[in-house]
Fold Transcriptional repressor.
Amino acid sequence: MIRRKTIQCDLVLQTVNNLRCHATADEIYETIVKEHPRISKATVYRNLQRLCEMGEIRKREFPGGADRYDHICSDHYHARCVKCGRVFDVDMEYMKDIEQSIRDDHGFIFTGHDIIFKGICKDCSNKQQIYDADAHS
Amino acid sequence: MIRRKTIQCDLVLQTVNNLRCHATADEIYETIVKEHPRISKATVYRNLQRLCEMGEIRKREFPGGADRYDHICSDHYHARCVKCGRVFDVDMEYMKDIEQSIRDDHGFIFTGHDIIFKGICKDCSNKQQIYDADAHS
DNA sequence: TTACCTGCAAAGTCTTTGCACTCTT
DNA sequence: AAGAGTGCAAAGACTTTGCAGGTAA
């Protein structure tokens, strides 16, 4: 099974890189479709999957939301805003030895981990303050 | 909005508790429907939501899988088997001060975190060994 | 020419919602 | 009796898949 070079695959890769981190398949599709109205969402999904297999990009799955795609960058953690659902990088050291803190593995073979913080992003807490101010005026 | 006591709500709560941790809405529904064939999945979802709001149970969302429901127990982390998708508790101290390790919060207000380990569970690694042995014989 | 890739539509998984009916209170 | 809760079906969000036709090599 040889991989062919296609315009669509290039577009998906470029778009993931241009959008920097954390784009969802839908955001990627919406960005591409503006310039290339004939592309289909299925093609975007298929190419995202292919690019992951090729190690060009990384898929990141988040609880209660769509999957997001990164260009390959160093391991890091994420914070998800409970108001708007957007995902942000967390400026914190990656704990590559965290598995050693596990007391009893019960036979489970650990291969990796993710930490997902939750909270409220700057934009949403600003909006909240404006709303509160309005409500009390 | 007063909450009424219904058989269905009791059944959902009992089933979450009986199944111990990590049951999905579907598992809960399938368990109840054996005894009460008239219950609908929508009712299970609605009662799970209600019980969460009441603080009787806790919803836990996992990347790339259905939501799962816990009876309230102490904070702890989870490991998800990449083969079978089952979720296990991790025997490790809860890092309640982890947010203090974040260097720059960029205006984000952190309210909690989750750590999700991934790997292969005991059952699946046993099966894998059996499969490997067969393949080489 | 081969067979991988695409666009489209349909289906699949998990969850929510609209509606009329049924219960609890 | 009032209105919260139920069952059913439909819809909604996200993703995958089947298929016929297109295209890279």
Q: What stands out?
A: The domain at 74-137 of chain A is CATH 3.30.1490.190 (Dna Ligase; domain 1). Residues 1-4, 6, 8-9, 38-43, 46-47 of chain A lie near DNA strand C (CB under 10 Å from a C1').
